[in-house]
Write a structure and sequence with these properties.
This protein is mostly helical and 261 residues long. The protein has nine helices and two strands; from the N terminus they run ααααααββααα. A two-stranded antiparallel sheet has the order 1-2. It is globular and about 55 Å long. It is found in: Cell membrane.
């Protein structure tokens, strides 16, 4: 427990400094986190480290970040389409020449590059376009959902939410997490107005809570399918980056999809 707390404090400090400063400092941090998360994904699905497919995946993630880097002026949609098509062709073609590299692994690797890449791209984009307070309020809402679901689930949880993926999560805990996040969201809106209105606050927090919980379950399903307990050991007491930030990825993709970023 002590190791977990100390690690948590160190992580918070290392994250909050570039997050507070913003600009390209946080964009580069988001890119680094995305690359580490992809590295962990390759460990989960047993892709050879530092091989061709490994580096192509990392290059794909870097290319997705290009429009956010300050020294470039690139149209995001053009990069997005070209990166997607190139990755599809490369990962599928690679199955021809390596019998151990299955279509399943090719698909998982492709999804991983896009899911991780876009998740962190939209996190960085939110910090740039929506600002410090807005993005911080979203992150607090994710934390409130996780904490609320944990404590409500322990106290009142009876019905399993997704027993085949995460046996400890309950429907009561999930609903409790949403309610706690909504309450904290309204308190934040009354205190320092991170969002445009109370209506937007309720809508945004609800989306954040749902997407965050789905993101957590998706990563649990991935690890269970490949029979892995943690995504990595980078963070003592916490597992890997994917273990800690799986909710974030789905949240920021979800907010982008509904037009809130």
């Amino acid at each position: 427990m002590k190791e977990r707390v100390i690690t948590g404090i160190i992580i918070l400090i290392l994250f909050m400094i570039p997050f507070y400063v913003g600009a390209f400092w946080f964009t580069y941090l988001a890119l680094i986190l995305a690359i580490i998360a992809f590295h962990e994904l390759t460990t989960i699905i047993k892709i050879r480290k530092y091989g061709t497919k490994y580096f192509v995946g990392i290059i794909g993630i870097v290319l997705l970040f290009l429009p956010l880097l300050p020294f470039l002026n690139v149209t995001f949609e053009i990069i997005q389409i070209k990166v997607l098509l190139a990755l599809v062709l490369f990962f599928l073609t690679s199955t021809i020449f390596n019998i151990e590299y299955s279509i399943e692994k090719a698909g998982t690797l492709l999804i991983g590059v896009l899911y991780i890449g876009f998740g962190f791209v939209f996190l960085a984009e939110a910090r740039i376009d929506e600002g410090l307070i807005w993005t911080l309020a979203v992150l607090i809402s994710i934390w409130a959902t996780d904490s609320g679901a944990y404590f409500v689930g322990r106290k009142f949880g009876k019905r399993k939410l997704a027993p085949n993926v995460s046996p400890n999560k309950t429907i009561e805990g999930s609903v409790g997490g949403i309610i706690i996040a909504l309450i904290i969201g309204l308190v934040m809106q009354a205190s320092f107005h991170p969002f445009a209105s109370y209506g937007e606050t309720l809508l945004l927090i609800f989306i954040v809570s749902i997407a965050g919980q789905v993101g957590d379950l998706v990563e649990s399903a991935l690890k269970r399918h490949f029979k892995v307990k943690d995504s990595g050991k980078l963070l003592p007491g916490h597992g890997g980056i994917l273990d800690r930030l799986d909710s974030w990825i789905f949240v920021f993709i979800g907010l982008k999809l509904v037009g809130l970023i």
